[in-house]
Amino acid sequence: MSAGPNIGAAEEKKEVSVGKTADIAAIMKALPHRYPFLLLDRMEQIQFGESAVGIKNVTINEPFFPGHFPVAPVMPGVLIIEAMAQTAAALVMMGLEYERGNKIVYFMTVEGAKFRKPVGPGDQLHLEVKKDRQRGNVWRFKGVARVNGKSVAEASFSAMILDPPEK
Questions:
Q1: CA pair distance 46, 136, nearest whole angstrom
Q2: Residue 75: which of 84, 89, 90, 62 has the closest Cα?
Q3: Residue whose C-alpha is closest to residue 130's, from 91, 78, 82
Q4: HSE value, Cβ hemisphere, 13 Å, CA-based, for 73
Q5: Of 8, 153, 28, nearest to 90 (Cα)?
Q6: What is the DSSP string of 53-121?
Q7: Topology (CATH level 3) of domain 6-162
Q8: CA 147, CA 10: separation in Å to the nearest integer?
Q9: How far apart are CA 156 and CA 24, in angstroms?
Q10: Domain assignments of the chain as residue spans, ordered by start
Q11: Please, which residues have CB within 8 angstroms of residue 148's CB and are 6 or more apart in sequence?
Q12: How confident is the model at residue 97, as a pLDDT?
């Protein structure tokens, strides 16, 4: 089954619709995160205002592996949650009429986080996020991270869309 047409950075966010994918250029347009903290490589199954699947290819070159843990590298659980939150933030920013760069999605809460299996080099995380509810500029999501179809982490989390801080 095809994942749908790819959305590149040159295309407008309103042209991204159900079942489409977003490449790294489109994600970087939607999010302020950059290396080493951009934890998404691609997005699939985008349903604006509702859900998406983020993809994170985990490699031995990740900056956290030398310290977590050198003998048996494991991706920190909080970074798996952050990757879910980035998937949700990109979904929100791509789907709304905000001018990208003029708003930032700030993490507010994390609840019910569970880590079921270690994630390491060579794993591909599928970060499934689904909107639970939205009130004004506050969004609540449920997320599940999977490797090879099996749940490795899950959490509920909320975020708020705000203007970036003044410098």
A1: 21
A2: 62
A3: 91
A4: 14
A5: 28
A6: EEEEE--TT-TTGGGS-SSS----HHHHHHHHHHHHHHHHHHHSSSPTTS-EEEEEEEEEEEE-S---T
A7: Thiol Ester Dehydrase; Chain A (3.10.129)
A8: 31
A9: 25
A10: 6-162
A11: none
A12: 61
Q: Which residues are catalytic?
A: 68
Asked if residue 152 has pLDDT above 90, the reply is: yes
Report the predicted TM-score, pTM, of the whole model to 2 decimal places. Answer: 0.88
CA distance 163 to 165: 6
How many residues in the chain? 167
Query: Residue for token digits 């592996």?
Result: 65
Q: Are 7 and 24 spatial neighbours (Cβ–Cβ below 8 Å)?
A: no
Q: 99-117, pLDDT tens digit by residue? A: 555 788 999 999 999 999 9
Q: Tokens 């789907």 map to which residue?
A: 95
